[in-house]
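cron nightly-structures :: item 1 of 1
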Amino acid sequence: MRALLQQSLAIAGKLLKTLTTAWSGLSKPEQRLLNELAAGRPVAALVLTGTTVDVGSWFKKGRVVGVWVGGEWTMFAAGQRPFVEKVSPRLLAASVYNHIIGKLVLAPAPEVRLRQLRMSPLDAVRALRWILN
Protein backbone atom coordinates (compact mmCIF):
# COMPACT_ATOMS: atom_id res chain seq x y z
CA MET A 1 0.00 0.00 0.00
CA ARG A 2 2.81 2.40 0.87
CA ALA A 3 4.59 1.65 -2.41
CA LEU A 4 1.41 2.39 -4.35
CA LEU A 5 0.99 5.69 -2.52
CA GLN A 6 4.61 6.67 -3.21
CA GLN A 7 4.22 5.74 -6.88
CA SER A 8 1.02 7.81 -7.12
CA LEU A 9 2.72 10.80 -5.51
CA ALA A 10 5.67 10.48 -7.90
CA ILE A 11 3.33 10.45 -10.91
CA ALA A 12 1.40 13.44 -9.55
CA GLY A 13 4.70 15.27 -9.01
CA LYS A 14 5.77 14.64 -12.61
CA LEU A 15 2.39 15.82 -13.89
CA LEU A 16 2.58 18.96 -11.78
CA LYS A 17 6.12 19.65 -12.99
CA THR A 18 5.02 19.22 -16.62
CA LEU A 19 2.02 21.53 -16.16
CA THR A 20 4.11 24.10 -14.29
CA THR A 21 6.76 24.11 -17.03
CA ALA A 22 4.13 24.50 -19.77
CA TRP A 23 2.23 27.13 -17.76
CA SER A 24 5.38 29.24 -17.39
CA GLY A 25 5.75 29.12 -21.19
CA LEU A 26 2.39 30.83 -21.68
CA SER A 27 2.16 34.56 -22.32
CA LYS A 28 -0.09 36.70 -20.09
CA PRO A 29 -2.90 36.83 -22.70
CA GLU A 30 -2.70 33.03 -23.10
CA GLN A 31 -2.89 32.58 -19.32
CA ARG A 32 -5.97 34.84 -19.13
CA LEU A 33 -7.69 32.98 -21.96
CA LEU A 34 -6.89 29.62 -20.36
CA ASN A 35 -8.35 30.80 -17.05
CA GLU A 36 -11.54 31.83 -18.87
CA LEU A 37 -11.77 28.51 -20.69
CA ALA A 38 -11.08 26.41 -17.60
CA ALA A 39 -13.62 28.34 -15.49
CA GLY A 40 -12.55 26.60 -12.31
CA ARG A 41 -12.32 23.12 -13.85
CA PRO A 42 -9.00 21.28 -13.46
CA VAL A 43 -6.49 21.43 -16.32
CA ALA A 44 -5.13 17.92 -16.83
CA ALA A 45 -2.78 18.44 -19.77
CA LEU A 46 -1.23 21.48 -21.43
CA VAL A 47 0.76 21.32 -24.68
CA LEU A 48 2.47 24.26 -26.36
CA THR A 49 2.45 23.71 -30.12
CA GLY A 50 4.40 25.19 -33.01
CA THR A 51 1.18 25.79 -34.97
CA THR A 52 0.02 29.37 -35.47
CA VAL A 53 -3.33 30.80 -36.55
CA ASP A 54 -4.68 34.24 -37.47
CA VAL A 55 -5.87 36.06 -34.34
CA GLY A 56 -6.33 39.53 -35.81
CA SER A 57 -2.81 40.90 -35.38
CA TRP A 58 -1.04 42.70 -38.18
CA PHE A 59 2.44 41.53 -37.31
CA LYS A 60 2.18 37.97 -36.04
CA LYS A 61 -0.09 34.99 -35.71
CA GLY A 62 -1.12 33.45 -32.40
CA ARG A 63 0.45 30.25 -31.13
CA VAL A 64 -2.00 27.38 -30.64
CA VAL A 65 -2.06 25.77 -27.21
CA GLY A 66 -3.68 22.38 -26.67
CA VAL A 67 -5.26 21.72 -23.29
CA TRP A 68 -7.34 18.95 -21.71
CA VAL A 69 -10.06 20.61 -19.64
CA GLY A 70 -13.26 19.10 -18.31
CA GLY A 71 -13.19 15.96 -20.43
CA GLU A 72 -12.59 17.62 -23.78
CA TRP A 73 -9.60 18.62 -25.91
CA THR A 74 -9.47 22.39 -26.37
CA MET A 75 -7.19 24.31 -28.72
CA PHE A 76 -6.81 28.05 -28.32
CA ALA A 77 -4.70 31.02 -29.39
CA ALA A 78 -4.85 34.43 -27.71
CA GLY A 79 -5.12 37.67 -29.65
CA GLN A 80 -7.52 40.41 -30.69
CA ARG A 81 -9.75 37.72 -32.19
CA PRO A 82 -8.98 34.66 -30.05
CA PHE A 83 -9.14 31.25 -31.65
CA VAL A 84 -10.93 28.61 -29.55
CA GLU A 85 -11.97 25.14 -30.64
CA LYS A 86 -13.34 22.47 -28.31
CA VAL A 87 -13.40 18.87 -29.47
CA SER A 88 -15.04 15.85 -27.89
CA PRO A 89 -12.64 12.93 -27.37
CA ARG A 90 -14.98 10.59 -29.24
CA LEU A 91 -14.19 12.55 -32.43
CA LEU A 92 -10.45 11.99 -31.96
CA ALA A 93 -10.31 8.20 -31.60
CA ALA A 94 -7.98 7.71 -34.59
CA SER A 95 -5.52 10.51 -33.78
CA VAL A 96 -1.82 9.78 -34.40
CA TYR A 97 1.54 11.52 -34.41
CA ASN A 98 3.16 11.72 -37.84
CA HIS A 99 6.88 11.76 -37.08
CA ILE A 100 7.80 12.55 -40.69
CA ILE A 101 6.06 15.93 -40.70
CA GLY A 102 6.30 16.44 -36.91
CA LYS A 103 2.58 16.95 -36.38
CA LEU A 104 -0.17 15.49 -34.26
CA VAL A 105 -2.96 14.54 -36.66
CA LEU A 106 -6.43 14.75 -35.14
CA ALA A 107 -8.69 12.16 -36.74
CA PRO A 108 -11.33 11.44 -37.86
CA ALA A 109 -12.76 14.81 -36.63
CA PRO A 110 -14.49 15.95 -39.86
CA GLU A 111 -15.79 19.24 -38.41
CA VAL A 112 -12.56 20.26 -36.66
CA ARG A 113 -10.91 23.29 -38.29
CA LEU A 114 -7.39 22.54 -37.05
CA ARG A 115 -6.59 18.91 -37.83
CA GLN A 116 -2.80 19.07 -37.55
CA LEU A 117 -0.72 20.53 -34.73
CA ARG A 118 3.05 20.93 -34.99
CA MET A 119 4.74 19.64 -31.82
CA SER A 120 7.61 17.60 -30.49
CA PRO A 121 7.26 13.80 -30.20
CA LEU A 122 7.26 14.02 -26.39
CA ASP A 123 4.46 16.60 -26.36
CA ALA A 124 2.52 14.48 -28.85
CA VAL A 125 2.79 11.43 -26.59
CA ARG A 126 1.48 13.51 -23.67
CA ALA A 127 -1.41 14.83 -25.76
CA LEU A 128 -2.30 11.41 -27.17
CA ARG A 129 -2.27 9.90 -23.68
CA TRP A 130 -5.14 12.20 -22.74
CA ILE A 131 -6.96 12.18 -26.08
CA LEU A 132 -7.06 8.39 -26.50
CA ASN A 133 -7.88 7.42 -22.90
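cron nightly-structures :: done
The helical segments are 2-24, 28-38, 121-131.
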